Fold:
Amino acid sequence: MKVMIALDGSRLAETSLAYLPALEAVGIESVVLVAVVEEFDEGAEIRGSEEFFERQSVLYSAYLADAAKKLTQAVGYEVRTELWAGVPDQEIQKVATAREIDLLMLTTHGRSGISRWTIGSVADKIIRRADRPTFVVGPQAVARGASAAIKRILAPVDGSGLGERGLVYAGNWAKALSAEMHVVRVVNLPVMTPEDSLVAYNADVMQSLRDAAEHYLRQLPATTGVKPASTAVLTGSTASELIGYCEEQGIDLVVMSSHGRRGMMRAVLGSTTDRMLHAPAPVLIVPSC
Structure:
């Protein structure tokens, strides 16, 4: 597996590097560290000058070389660096395609760096457009620090085939990492209209929804080949319930699908996926195609 890690010159953005030793069992063959010197309009003062651009390039080159040296001492595979110029999110996507990258890794809020572009804002665009698995380390995962090993993986499902794509991917990683697999489905109550605001969901309706969700989870081993160590049906706000589950169960990695058109699988920032990036564990986003 070829891995690419996007860096912006900040130590915070390097947090994703700390997860590499824990991921070696999934078959990492090589890693490329990529940084982008952002180009500016010719009319911009100072920052758009050739002198500024050259100075930034020198600083980034030294930064990448230092990061690669430290990483090489910690892992047993090839580590390369590439420095590009242009619009950060666009260049990162180009490199990933050109180098046939299997897994992209990044941190969601590198707020200080050599350049003024930040991994945080760039990550939003990369996640939306990602056409390959993307391992995202969010702010709470940064604060928690990288685990020495990934022992518990959570795969949320929503009952759709798109959601199950992430489940199968999670199952493969759980097997490679000898990790405990958790599968959760959150039952969301339909949003009521003002006319229905006085209508309460009775116990029978709630139990029916939970029974259907539990039946679905029981069928997953037969339909997907994934045999989780633990399953759970939760009721409430999807993101809040999943984040709470991560905290209670000590989840080390969340794996979820993107581009589902409904419910929790919509990978547009502001939706559940965006909120899950604030979970205490990194999130591996698997594209639906």
